Amino acid sequence: MTDLAQQLDANLSRIRSGIREACDKANRNPDDVKLVAVTKYATLDTLKLCVDAGLSDLGESKAQDLALRGEAVHEFLSTRARDIQAGAMPRPKWHMVGHLQRNKVRLVLPWVELVHSVDSLRLAEEISIDAGKLDRTVNVLMQVNTSNESSKFGVAVGAATHLAEMIASLPNVTLCGLMVMAPLTEDRDAVYDCFMRCRELYDEITHEVEVGEHFRHLSMGMSRDFDIAIGCGATILRIGSALFEGLPSTISATT
Protein backbone atom coordinates (compact mmCIF):
# COMPACT_ATOMS: atom_id res chain seq x y z
CA MET A 1 0.00 0.00 0.00
CA THR A 2 1.37 3.41 -0.99
CA ASP A 3 1.72 6.29 1.45
CA LEU A 4 -1.25 8.06 -0.14
CA ALA A 5 -3.39 4.94 0.09
CA GLN A 6 -2.42 4.59 3.76
CA GLN A 7 -3.39 8.22 4.38
CA LEU A 8 -6.78 7.71 2.74
CA ASP A 9 -7.30 4.51 4.71
CA ALA A 10 -6.45 6.29 7.98
CA ASN A 11 -8.83 9.16 7.17
CA LEU A 12 -11.60 6.74 6.24
CA SER A 13 -11.09 4.74 9.42
CA ARG A 14 -11.28 7.92 11.52
CA ILE A 15 -14.49 9.03 9.82
CA ARG A 16 -16.14 5.63 10.14
CA SER A 17 -15.19 5.58 13.81
CA GLY A 18 -16.83 8.99 14.22
CA ILE A 19 -19.95 7.73 12.47
CA ARG A 20 -20.13 4.71 14.77
CA GLU A 21 -19.68 6.89 17.84
CA ALA A 22 -22.41 9.31 16.74
CA CYS A 23 -24.74 6.41 15.92
CA ASP A 24 -24.13 4.89 19.35
CA LYS A 25 -25.12 8.18 21.01
CA ALA A 26 -28.26 8.38 18.85
CA ASN A 27 -29.10 4.69 19.33
CA ARG A 28 -28.85 4.11 15.59
CA ASN A 29 -27.34 1.41 13.39
CA PRO A 30 -24.26 2.69 11.48
CA ASP A 31 -25.31 0.51 8.54
CA ASP A 32 -28.27 2.88 8.09
CA VAL A 33 -25.94 5.81 7.32
CA LYS A 34 -24.40 6.06 3.85
CA LEU A 35 -21.09 7.84 3.31
CA VAL A 36 -20.79 9.78 0.05
CA ALA A 37 -17.21 10.81 -0.70
CA VAL A 38 -17.37 14.32 -2.18
CA THR A 39 -14.43 14.24 -4.59
CA LYS A 40 -14.57 17.76 -6.05
CA TYR A 41 -11.11 18.69 -4.71
CA ALA A 42 -9.51 15.27 -5.17
CA THR A 43 -7.08 14.57 -7.99
CA LEU A 44 -7.86 11.80 -10.46
CA ASP A 45 -5.18 9.62 -8.87
CA THR A 46 -6.84 10.10 -5.49
CA LEU A 47 -10.15 9.26 -7.10
CA LYS A 48 -8.71 5.92 -8.20
CA LEU A 49 -7.54 5.31 -4.63
CA CYS A 50 -11.11 5.88 -3.49
CA VAL A 51 -12.32 3.16 -5.83
CA ASP A 52 -9.57 0.82 -4.65
CA ALA A 53 -10.55 1.57 -1.03
CA GLY A 54 -14.07 0.36 -1.74
CA LEU A 55 -15.81 3.73 -1.55
CA SER A 56 -18.93 2.89 -3.51
CA ASP A 57 -20.64 6.31 -3.49
CA LEU A 58 -18.89 9.37 -4.96
CA GLY A 59 -20.24 12.91 -5.10
CA GLU A 60 -19.57 15.94 -7.27
CA SER A 61 -20.94 19.48 -7.02
CA LYS A 62 -20.56 20.51 -10.68
CA ALA A 63 -22.23 18.79 -13.61
CA GLN A 64 -19.20 19.05 -15.89
CA ASP A 65 -16.91 17.54 -13.26
CA LEU A 66 -19.31 14.68 -12.56
CA ALA A 67 -19.49 13.81 -16.26
CA LEU A 68 -15.72 14.03 -16.76
CA ARG A 69 -14.88 12.07 -13.62
CA GLY A 70 -17.59 9.53 -14.30
CA GLU A 71 -16.05 8.87 -17.69
CA ALA A 72 -12.52 8.76 -16.25
CA VAL A 73 -13.47 6.22 -13.58
CA HIS A 74 -15.38 4.19 -16.16
CA GLU A 75 -12.28 4.01 -18.38
CA PHE A 76 -10.06 3.17 -15.40
CA LEU A 77 -12.28 0.30 -14.32
CA SER A 78 -12.77 -0.95 -17.88
CA THR A 79 -9.00 -1.11 -18.36
CA ARG A 80 -8.56 -2.76 -14.98
CA ALA A 81 -11.22 -5.38 -15.79
CA ARG A 82 -9.14 -6.50 -18.76
CA ASP A 83 -6.24 -7.22 -16.41
CA ILE A 84 -6.84 -10.77 -15.21
CA GLN A 85 -4.55 -10.33 -12.20
CA ALA A 86 -6.18 -7.07 -11.10
CA GLY A 87 -9.71 -8.36 -11.55
CA ALA A 88 -12.96 -6.49 -12.02
CA MET A 89 -14.24 -4.02 -9.42
CA PRO A 90 -17.76 -2.72 -8.87
CA ARG A 91 -18.45 0.67 -10.40
CA PRO A 92 -19.16 3.49 -7.95
CA LYS A 93 -22.51 5.23 -7.74
CA TRP A 94 -22.35 8.94 -8.54
CA HIS A 95 -24.21 11.61 -6.60
CA MET A 96 -24.88 15.13 -7.85
CA VAL A 97 -24.62 17.10 -4.60
CA GLY A 98 -24.32 20.68 -5.90
CA HIS A 99 -26.69 23.06 -7.64
CA LEU A 100 -27.83 21.65 -10.97
CA GLN A 101 -28.82 23.96 -13.81
CA ARG A 102 -31.53 22.75 -16.15
CA ASN A 103 -29.27 23.01 -19.19
CA LYS A 104 -26.75 20.67 -17.51
CA VAL A 105 -29.17 17.83 -16.71
CA ARG A 106 -28.24 15.86 -19.84
CA LEU A 107 -24.59 15.91 -18.79
CA VAL A 108 -25.14 14.07 -15.53
CA LEU A 109 -27.98 11.66 -16.31
CA PRO A 110 -25.81 9.00 -17.97
CA TRP A 111 -23.80 8.71 -14.75
CA VAL A 112 -25.78 9.89 -11.76
CA GLU A 113 -27.43 7.56 -9.24
CA LEU A 114 -28.96 10.28 -7.07
CA VAL A 115 -29.48 14.03 -7.59
CA HIS A 116 -29.47 15.66 -4.15
CA SER A 117 -30.27 19.22 -5.19
CA VAL A 118 -33.68 19.46 -6.85
CA ASP A 119 -35.19 22.73 -5.63
CA SER A 120 -37.73 23.69 -8.28
CA LEU A 121 -40.49 22.08 -10.31
CA ARG A 122 -38.87 23.23 -13.56
CA LEU A 123 -35.66 21.37 -12.72
CA ALA A 124 -37.58 18.25 -11.70
CA GLU A 125 -39.56 18.41 -14.95
CA GLU A 126 -36.35 18.73 -16.98
CA ILE A 127 -34.90 15.67 -15.24
CA SER A 128 -38.14 13.77 -15.89
CA ILE A 129 -38.16 14.65 -19.59
CA ASP A 130 -34.49 13.81 -20.18
CA ALA A 131 -34.72 10.62 -18.11
CA GLY A 132 -37.66 9.52 -20.24
CA LYS A 133 -35.54 9.92 -23.36
CA LEU A 134 -33.00 7.55 -21.80
CA ASP A 135 -35.78 5.14 -20.75
CA ARG A 136 -34.77 5.32 -17.10
CA THR A 137 -36.00 6.62 -13.78
CA VAL A 138 -33.79 9.02 -11.81
CA ASN A 139 -33.68 9.14 -8.02
CA VAL A 140 -33.78 12.66 -6.60
CA LEU A 141 -33.81 14.49 -3.29
CA MET A 142 -35.52 17.81 -2.78
CA GLN A 143 -33.18 20.47 -1.40
CA VAL A 144 -34.71 22.66 1.29
CA ASN A 145 -33.35 25.88 2.79
CA THR A 146 -34.10 25.52 6.48
CA SER A 147 -31.47 28.07 7.50
CA ASN A 148 -33.22 30.81 5.48
CA GLU A 149 -29.89 31.96 4.04
CA SER A 150 -30.20 33.96 0.82
CA SER A 151 -26.82 32.60 -0.30
CA LYS A 152 -28.06 29.01 -0.30
CA PHE A 153 -30.15 27.18 -2.84
CA GLY A 154 -33.16 25.16 -1.76
CA VAL A 155 -36.90 25.55 -1.63
CA ALA A 156 -38.35 27.63 1.21
CA VAL A 157 -39.80 25.63 4.08
CA GLY A 158 -43.29 26.99 3.49
CA ALA A 159 -43.32 25.79 -0.13
CA ALA A 160 -41.65 22.43 0.43
CA THR A 161 -44.69 20.23 0.98
CA HIS A 162 -46.42 21.40 -2.19
CA LEU A 163 -43.24 21.03 -4.25
CA ALA A 164 -42.70 17.51 -2.90
CA GLU A 165 -46.22 16.60 -4.03
CA MET A 166 -45.54 17.95 -7.51
CA ILE A 167 -42.19 16.19 -7.87
CA ALA A 168 -43.61 12.89 -6.62
CA SER A 169 -46.25 13.02 -9.37
CA LEU A 170 -43.74 13.24 -12.23
CA PRO A 171 -42.88 10.22 -14.41
CA ASN A 172 -39.28 8.99 -14.64
CA VAL A 173 -38.42 10.63 -11.30
CA THR A 174 -38.44 9.01 -7.86
CA LEU A 175 -38.47 11.36 -4.89
CA CYS A 176 -36.30 9.69 -2.24
CA GLY A 177 -36.12 12.31 0.51
CA LEU A 178 -34.69 15.70 1.42
CA MET A 179 -31.31 17.40 1.36
CA VAL A 180 -30.14 20.41 3.36
CA MET A 181 -26.93 22.36 3.88
CA ALA A 182 -26.28 23.75 7.33
CA PRO A 183 -24.92 27.28 7.83
CA LEU A 184 -21.13 27.59 7.88
CA THR A 185 -20.76 28.49 11.53
CA GLU A 186 -19.15 27.39 14.77
CA ASP A 187 -22.56 27.68 16.44
CA ARG A 188 -23.52 24.03 16.77
CA ASP A 189 -26.97 24.96 18.06
CA ALA A 190 -27.68 26.77 14.79
CA VAL A 191 -26.54 23.72 12.83
CA TYR A 192 -28.71 21.47 14.99
CA ASP A 193 -31.74 23.70 14.43
CA CYS A 194 -31.19 23.57 10.67
CA PHE A 195 -30.98 19.78 10.62
CA MET A 196 -33.89 19.26 12.98
CA ARG A 197 -36.14 21.53 10.93
CA CYS A 198 -35.31 19.40 7.91
CA ARG A 199 -36.15 16.25 9.87
CA GLU A 200 -39.45 17.77 11.01
CA LEU A 201 -40.24 18.78 7.44
CA TYR A 202 -39.46 15.25 6.29
CA ASP A 203 -41.94 13.87 8.83
CA GLU A 204 -44.58 16.41 7.79
CA ILE A 205 -44.24 15.50 4.11
CA THR A 206 -44.35 11.79 4.88
CA HIS A 207 -47.69 12.21 6.63
CA GLU A 208 -49.25 14.77 4.29
CA VAL A 209 -48.11 13.73 0.81
CA GLU A 210 -48.28 10.46 -1.14
CA VAL A 211 -44.54 10.28 -1.69
CA GLY A 212 -44.21 6.50 -1.80
CA GLU A 213 -41.97 3.94 -0.14
CA HIS A 214 -38.74 5.34 -1.58
CA PHE A 215 -39.06 8.58 0.41
CA ARG A 216 -36.75 7.59 3.24
CA HIS A 217 -33.54 9.60 3.02
CA LEU A 218 -32.14 12.70 4.68
CA SER A 219 -28.95 13.96 3.07
CA MET A 220 -27.41 16.27 5.65
CA GLY A 221 -24.06 16.56 7.35
CA MET A 222 -20.57 17.21 6.04
CA SER A 223 -17.05 16.96 7.43
CA ARG A 224 -17.48 19.41 10.31
CA ASP A 225 -21.03 18.56 11.39
CA PHE A 226 -21.85 14.98 10.45
CA ASP A 227 -22.15 13.95 14.09
CA ILE A 228 -24.94 16.49 14.61
CA ALA A 229 -26.62 15.32 11.41
CA ILE A 230 -26.61 11.70 12.55
CA GLY A 231 -28.26 12.72 15.81
CA CYS A 232 -30.99 14.41 13.75
CA GLY A 233 -31.63 11.36 11.58
CA ALA A 234 -29.33 11.74 8.57
CA THR A 235 -29.16 8.70 6.32
CA ILE A 236 -26.63 10.17 3.86
CA LEU A 237 -23.47 12.11 4.77
CA ARG A 238 -21.52 14.16 2.23
CA ILE A 239 -17.87 14.06 3.36
CA GLY A 240 -15.06 15.80 1.52
CA SER A 241 -12.23 17.60 3.35
CA ALA A 242 -12.03 15.19 6.30
CA LEU A 243 -11.69 12.26 3.92
CA PHE A 244 -8.98 13.81 1.77
CA GLU A 245 -6.92 15.47 4.49
CA GLY A 246 -3.21 15.09 3.76
CA LEU A 247 -3.81 14.02 0.14
CA PRO A 248 -3.04 15.95 -3.06
CA SER A 249 -5.78 18.48 -3.80
CA THR A 250 -6.77 20.60 -6.77
CA ILE A 251 -7.67 23.46 -4.42
CA SER A 252 -8.04 24.16 -0.69
CA ALA A 253 -11.00 22.04 0.44
CA THR A 254 -13.72 23.32 2.76
CA THR A 255 -16.41 20.66 2.32
Please, could you describe this protein's structure?
- With 255 residues, the chain is of the alpha/beta class.
- The chain has a single domain (3-239), classed as TIM Barrel (Alpha-Beta Barrel).
- The protein contains eight helices and nine strands.
- Strands 1, 2, 3, 4, 5, 6, 7, 8 and 9 form a nine-stranded parallel beta sheet that branches.
- Helix 3 (63-81) links the parallel strand 2 (57-60) and strand 3 (93-96).
- Helix 6 (157-168) crosses helix 7 (188-208).
- The chain is globular, with a radius of gyration of 18 Å.
- The model has no long low-confidence stretch (mean pLDDT 93).
Key attributes of the depicted protein:
single chain, 255 residues, alpha/beta, TIM Barrel, 9-stranded parallel sheet, 9 strands, globular
- Indicate the mean pLDDT: 93
C-alpha end-to-end distance: 26 Å
Q: What is the N-to-C order of secondary-structure elements (H for helix, E for strand)?
A: HEHEHEHEHEEHEHEHE
Total of DSSP H or I helical runs spanning 4+ residues: 8
**Largest beta sheet, briefly?**
9 strands, parallel
Q: Would you tell me which CATH topology applies?
A: TIM Barrel
Instruction: Indicate the CATH architecture.
Output: Alpha-Beta Barrel
Radius of gyration: 18 Å
Q: Approximately how much beta-strand content do the residues carry?
A: 15-25%
Structural class: alpha/beta
CATH level 1 class label:
Alpha Beta
Helix content: 40-55%
- The best one-word shape is globular
Count of individual beta strands: 9
Report the CATH superfamily. Answer: Alanine racemase
